[in-house]
Amino acid sequence: xxxxxxxxxxxxxxxxxxxxxxxxxxxxxxxxxxxxxxxxxxxxxxxxxxxxxxxxxxxxxxxxxxxxxxxxxxxxxxxxxxxxxxxxxxxxxxxxxxxxxxxxxxxxxxxxxxxxxxxxxxxxxxxxxxxxxxxxxxxxxxxxxxxxxxxxxxxxxxxxxxxxxxxxxxxxxxxxxxxxxxxxxxxxxxxx
Length: 192
Prior knowledge:
- The chain is of the alpha+beta class and 192 residues long.
- Helices cover 34% and strands 25% of the residues.
- β8 and β9 (169-172) form a beta hairpin.
- The longest helix has 17 residues, at 139-155.
- It is elongated, with a radius of gyration of 26 Å.
């Protein structure tokens, strides 16, 4: 007769499941068979394993050990990802190729777009702007002004502010390189 190594209940009252010594989510293949009850296994997996994976030291250890895992999934689930440049901090997410930062509203009411993605959203916002239609600007005129604005922006130096009153837009050229900041979503402590 077996008993759970955590709650000490025996196999006559409980069912057992496989216990991964290293969480399966990071490639753990070493298994204890018939030693941990399903309830304890579920509790440890949901509460403890998940919280341990939020520790940056664990992420680093997993990578150093070469355990198979999805780095992007591990980072997105367990860390707040920020990109910092000068006085601007933007939310991001991990991808298998690195990090990406999506368009987002800033506290001052402006919108920040990643350098490589700004053209499409900018044109959409211009063409949808009722103020321009009310001022008598046709879509063709708005598109022509947009092309001039984009050319000016692309030629600008980092930090330069481009004001385009006819479209009601002000753009600030930012550096595309951001310092990455990872902050654990977990605020507790692990102790022995």
